[in-house]
Amino acid sequence: MQTIGQALDRLERSRFRSGFSLDDRDRKYLEEKGPEVIRRHAEDFVRQKLGPAEPVNDGRQTPMRGHPVFKAMHATACCCRGCLEKWYRVPRGRPLTESQQKKIVNLLMAWIARQEKE
């Protein structure tokens, strides 16, 4: 099993995944809301968009912009069940466990934290 740091380093080598970054509007939103609120948003998005065994509109359910967590979901390949399967070997057709959801949220928050430092 890879660590969050290893996963982020691997994602940075992907031309597509490394193309995502936070803009000034995202940074302002993060500053206004704070990490606790952003984490709750991430938990909600992961539960709704990835948690079910067969998410509605899987493969198209996560917008590319509009919220820093959406960008993080694409940057970390946590945007749909297909990407989760390809990058992390999380099988489709089964609901995500609470543990899996927490790991995804932790990865999203780590990507956001890395972006804030840049």
Give the SSE map.
Blueprint: H1 4-12, H2 24-49, H3 68-75, H4 81-88, H5 98-117
Helix pairs in contact: 1-5, 2-5, 3-5
The unreliable regions are: none
Q: Determine the fraction of residues in helical runs and give it as a percent range.
A: 55-70%
Strand content: under 5%
Ends distance: 27 Å
Strands, total number: 0
Rounded to the nearest angstrom, the radius of gyration is 13 Å
The assigned structural class equals mainly alpha
- Please report the number of helical segments: 5
State the shape.
globular
Q: Mean pLDDT, rounded to whole units?
A: 95
Order of helices and strands: HHHHH
Give a quick account of the main beta sheet: strands, pairing sense, barrel closure.
Answer: none
Number of domains: 1
Descriptive labels:
5 helices, 118 residues, 60% helix, mainly alpha, globular
Q: What do you see in this structure?
A:
The chain is 60% helix and 0% strand. The chain has one domain. The chain is globular. The longest helix is centred in the N-terminal third of the chain and has 26 residues, at 24-49. Helix 3 packs across helix 5 (98-117). It is mainly alpha-helical.
In short:
With 118 residues, this protein is mostly helical.
